Amino acid sequence: MSSPARLFEAPEEAQATDLSCVRVLSVPAGHVYIRHLSHPDGNDGVVRLPDPLVPGDVPAAQWWPPTALKAAWVRRHHDSFDLFHLHFGFDARTPDQLVDLVTALREHDKPFVYTVHDLRNPHHLSRDLHDAQLDVLVPAADALITLTDGAAAEIEQRWARTATVLPHPHVVAEPTLSRARRPRQEYVVGVHLKSLRASMDPVPVLETLVRTVAALPDARLAVNVHTDVVTPGSDRFDASVTDLLRDAEAGGTLDLAVHDFLDDDQLWDYLQGIDLSVLPYRFGTHSGWLEACHDLGTAVLAPDCGYYRQQRRCLTYRRDEHGLDVDSLERAVVRAVSERPSWRADPAVRRQERAVVADAHRRLYEHVLAVRR
Q1: How far is CA 355 from the centre of its chain?
Q2: Who contacts 244 (Cβ-Cβ below 8 Å, separation ≥6)?
Q3: Which residue of 107, 221, 326, 366 lies most exposed, with the fewest beta carbons within 10 A?
Q4: What is the pLDDT of residues 107-153, one digit of tens each?
Q5: Which CATH superfamily groups domain 12-170+351-372?
Q6: Is the pTM of this model over 0.85?
Q7: Neighbours of 184 (CB within 10 A)
Q8: Rounded alpha-carbon distances, angstroms, from residue 326 to 9, 144, 203, 212
């Protein structure tokens, strides 16, 4: 990916501001994207506070849902942070609750920064709620960040707001970031369905892949899915997906792996065990999965909806909420198997990129604090 077009440059007077330590309340903080916004040397002068604990016995996810999204929490704890930086986690908050949140931040003179990761929420079947949430958050923010020029252009068109464009930092850490891939003769086309987000409609994609990959020499289709999708009685059970997967497995046209949530090490092993990751999305904006593939040298075949192709280099096929262009998917798979693209991040470049992103965040934080003061 080329350098972002709109890195943040603070005005001269703001650049002169010297804040020895900016206490940032990131929502959430316990996510790899937010953790990797810090300078790799840890000397960017920004302290990202830990997520407030969620009441109750939830040791596996102490930060979910984010307690700091409650206006009452902000009013009680406003002295503990200098700046509020929202990323995601507000899926279940109503627009009125978000109005209360930004009102509480204004009451206590706390700058509000919002990174627009999603312009279409991948967990919502309808876009209506997320649009209403964005109609509160985007106009209220003191500064906006997003990941691609296309997303910035959409933000400008919809809300007349300018967003700073900063790339997604690396997802995979060392030493795995530099780990060599194992050579193999066959080309493995992988699809990971996870627990079937609302943004996924995998049946037409899988039907096309089963037929296409079976006709290609030295190619194999591998499909992973979480246990809940293929377990009758589960909230996530999908009979049509289960039948397709079981029938194709029985016919020898795909290798099926059913498992629960993979931890990071298992996920990195999985991604380096395939050569092409096909994203079966029908809507979306950006992708952390794409970034992990970029880190590990796994090519990606993404739909042309959203801004995936601007985020990192990838193959694309035509797909949106209205349907799938089967021919474009077939052509892209044939090209991938034929050309075997090898696109992988240079760890040194990733480190440099992370330093640039950290510095840009620091300058932006200082600027909004200076303006507010």
Answers
A1: 20
A2: 203, 206, 207
A3: 107
A4: 999 999 999 999 999 999 999 999 999 999 999 999 999 999 999 99
A5: Glycogen Phosphorylase B; (3.40.50.2000)
A6: yes
A7: 11
A8: 44, 37, 12, 10
